[in-house]
Amino acid sequence: MNKYEMFFKVQNDYQPSPYVEVVKRLDPGMYKATYDDMTDSVTFKVMESNHDDLVDLPGTEYDAVVSDVDLFLRPETEAKFKEMGFIHKFNILLHGPPGTGKTCLVNRVAQKLIAANAIVLFNPQPYALQKTYEILDAIQPDTRILVIFEEMDEHVRREETALLHVLDGEVQKKNAMYIATTNYIEKIPARVRRPGRFSSVIKVGFPNAKARAHYLSTKLKDKTMIASIVE
Known about the structure:
nine-stranded mixed sheet
């Protein structure tokens, strides 16, 4: 038996009592990875989106992010990275005022990656991520991974060195994509958000009139109200 199989645990809290199952591989989906240093194991807690039906808003920053995701998913992109001697990974930093839809955008991208058979890890601590990568490399090394860091400024404040090891240091993982969000870009030092650590830094603003109208058209039964609400 692979030495990691006894530690490859999936927890589902959507039952009367938490149920932990030992599995040989992770299915595509979103997980919260928790590391237990007493047993040197990682438990992957199944997560579900806390948003209603997510909507692609036309003409917004979602287009730019999806363009990067599509590029990341192309086999020829991975081949080019390998040919050039680089680890196949993409890092995106989203910033903007609170309430502009950064979390919703990230959840929409996460759904796209899951549909492409990827594993999504939500807000892992860097040391848990290191152990997670060790396990995944042993069991399913070619699986694509999306790592979401919400409130990136807080991650930097608490654990900058460990975080940098993950982004472009000793703990890098092939076929990994990182999306970080922050409301306070000024709190993230230039050394952290420089090119190489984040290939794309995208400002997420409030949706324009076209995007607002599209969103409302998917939510309201009475279409006659849309124009006035958009205004």
